[in-house]
Amino acid sequence: MDDWERKAIGLLGEELALAHLTSHGLNLIVRNYRAKVGELDLVMLDGQTLVFVEVRCRSSQQYGGPAASITWQKQRRLVKAAEHLLMKRAELRRYPARFDVVAIATGEPEAKVDWIKSAFTL
């Protein structure tokens, strides 16, 4: 799989995750927040809770599937990116926060979306 295909699958995964989460009442705040320390795929509000969402999309369950690909190093980068966003957007600091993962396994007949709330804490 080349970079173009990988990016296309990633974008599709983000769209599926966003649709899934908004259908469950979450509201989008920021999409694809980038900082030198890391990137946040989606930042959403779930009621009065700020949710940092990592989206993982995989075409196979090999190596443990999409959720298993989030290493402690990746978790640390997500936390750093969240801290960076909160420094830039002071109005978001008033909300309690959590880190969720949306793991998407593409395949036939359709993609399987698994939303893991409070997937990790650091």
TrEMBL record:
Protein name: UPF0102 protein JM946_22465
UniProt xrefs under InterPro entries: Restrct_endonuc-II-like, tRNA_endonuc-like_dom_sf, UPF0102_YraN-like
Source organism, top-level taxon: Bacteria
Family according to the record: Belongs to the UPF0102 family.
Organism in which the protein naturally occurs: Steroidobacter gossypii
HAMAP family per UniProt: UPF0102
NCBIfam families, alphabetized: PRK12497.1-3, PRK12497.3-3, YraN family protein
Any one Pfam family match given in the protein's UniProt record, by short name: UPF0102
